[in-house]
Amino acid sequence: MSVFMVSFRIADRTTVIGSYEERYDSVNTTIQSLTTGRRWSETTSFHLIESDLNSAELATSIDRASLLDHGVDLLVCINLSKKGYKVVGDNRDQDIDAIMAHR
Fold first, then answer.
1. Domain 2-101 has CATH 3.30.70
2. 0.70 cut: is pTM over it?
3. What is the pLDDT of residues 64-74, one digit of tens each?
4. Domain coordinates of the chain in residue numbers?
C-alpha cells in the first residue's frame, strides 16, 4: 500500500460532460471509493489517501469512473511512497515534469 497526494482543478463552467458541481462531486466520490486505507481531505480539491494502486492506475481509475473533462479539468496523482506520478487533463504547465525529476 502507498500514500498518494491527489489534487484536482475543475473548470468553473458547464461542459458536455456535466456541470461544475457534477464533475467536482464525481471526482471526490471516485477518490473516496478508490481509497484502500485512510483518507484525509480537509482542504479543497486535495486528498491524501492510501491505495494499493500505482499512480498511473489510480489516475486512470479516477478519470474513467468520474466526470473529469480532459478539455478543461486537471487531475494529478503523486505517489509519496515511491517516485510515481500521473497528470490527467488540461495541464498547461510542464514544470511538473521538471520538478518531479528532482525527487
1. yes
2. yes
3. 999 999 999 99
4. 2-101
